[in-house]
Fold this protein.
Amino acid sequence: MDLLKRTLAAIKPLDGEAMARAQARLDDLTKPPGSLGALESVARQLAGIRGEVPCRLTRKTHILMAGDHGVVAEGVSAFPQEVTAQMVLNFARGGAAINVLARHAGAELVLVDIGVAVELPDLPGLIKRKVASGTANLARGPAMTREQAVAALEVGIEVANEQVAAGSELLGIGEMGIGNTTPSTAIVAAFGGLPVEKITGRGTGIDDMRLQMKINAIRRGMEINRPDPTDPLDVLAKVGGLEIAGMAGVILAGAARRVPVVIDGFISGAAALVAVRLAPEARGYILASHLSEEPGHAAVLELLGMKPMLTMEMRLGEGTGAALGMTLVEAAVKIYHEMATFSQAGVSGALDG
Amino acid sequence: MDLLKRTLAAIKPLDGEAMARAQARLDDLTKPPGSLGALESVARQLAGIRGEVPCRLTRKTHILMAGDHGVVAEGVSAFPQEVTAQMVLNFARGGAAINVLARHAGAELVLVDIGVAVELPDLPGLIKRKVASGTANLARGPAMTREQAVAALEVGIEVANEQVAAGSELLGIGEMGIGNTTPSTAIVAAFGGLPVEKITGRGTGIDDMRLQMKINAIRRGMEINRPDPTDPLDVLAKVGGLEIAGMAGVILAGAARRVPVVIDGFISGAAALVAVRLAPEARGYILASHLSEEPGHAAVLELLGMKPMLTMEMRLGEGTGAALGMTLVEAAVKIYHEMATFSQAGVSGALDG
């Protein structure tokens, strides 16, 4: 609890003066003001986070949290629970989508077993920090104790702190956990006061019958647990998940250490909601990447007040959208530093300017 | 005219068998079927274009067409016409946004003077193929003769053919031309039968007064010229532009030589419309990149039946969105070739599969 408290206390607002300086340079680059849209706003945000737009993002790290969910007993997923562990092996061997896309983004992939149901062997790149062997079934009672939720947040903080200490300048988050759109939906419903059926989606691709089972499970979980939206730890513990808590911890650590964190889709969006409810200033350290196909994701981004840069109709998770988002952050850094200014290039300004 | 005719005749449908083979592999990769969205559909499309998904996109070329517009006399742009030539100099020196983003995408930048109003000096990377020193004012009569429109299309075909002959496996298009959202709007209005005021935007950032002048100029141009939507060359000549024709030529050449072409925003979208009206099968060779802030762009993509991958609120042109799109095409190629299959990875399939 101490680490969490210290981390929350260390989160400060963005550097407004640095953002104004960055804006002035952006407006002097050879393009109509604002015409590079998100590339400009990302550069400005990086300035607010780091105090200036970094010249390069030399070291980038994608942190993938894996955990299991007792709620799979309700038949909420198209895939069996053993796939979580199987996919961690696949990540360790380099064969999954996130391996390909993290390489594409030039990011190192860090795997964290924060709550996989089975014991995993020692694997290259795997950090073993299991808080529990999966959560309890949120449709029947609390998914986690408050202590477990805090422990999982602190695992995320520690892993992120280690990466930042090792020189990482950009963090990405992603997850693996069969069934984890179910707790994510419950979290979003709790914080947003949104009707469950409106934001419940098909996750990995469930049919109508399983979709109804999923909606029923989430509704029951909300009724039984009555998560208190004014108490983010209560929501996280009762209807959340270990890897969701871990990702929220990464965001909080990034915010405290002034390192930007690229979020992925619906599940990491739910983690971001937890983080900003715990520390509203953390919002400024989060970079949205894509809009996923999961119907609740647009609601999450709206609650966060963020716009996605990518609309790729992706719904895989693992942080695949975040990895693509990292390449756009990199592009924003290059735009800021490599473009000529109007005076350098001898280009006329606007007639009405 | 011969080159155009030969090119149009060489455009054939995508290879459906190759697409089916690619789909089978995509469905066997360790992810829920379809969960990588556009990355999967791009890979499938590349298979249809090339006969298989290329192992690498070794050589990528971004072709930037520059031309001027007589309609700037109507006060339709926030920037003076000399900016077109000034920006070509900026491109040649490497200081513009497209230089930065083409480098980011690993693409070579090819500049084409297809219709800049003034004489340009010899510049590194500049291909001088001026068809005319800008178009005539489309608000007072035809922007081009039919012969000029064909000549400009053929410049685009020739430049693209040269790049493909030199080994380019992926083409991107972009443009520079002060005032060129005006002819683009007229083209889209003509082909789509859309009301001018609904699809006219602020381009580089004009105020309300200029926006009204722009709408008036386009309306007058449509009334005076009466472009015939069933005759794409008539539309292109009467209300189009030289760089728009050049980009349409690049698309047609790409389709004829079975090389994918990544389009940019509103203006290259208008060029794509011209290309697919001339040769409907060309559509399969086009890859959409971003949704621009220009209000008519969504209408263009709808007319083309395409979805954007990026929503970056960009409105710069030059092909900046296409360059970012190229990086996503590259990611799709890597996903296809580098991911493990379910059997390789020992991962269980879906319960309901």
Observations:
- Residues 60 and 274 of chain A are 24 Å apart (CA to CA).
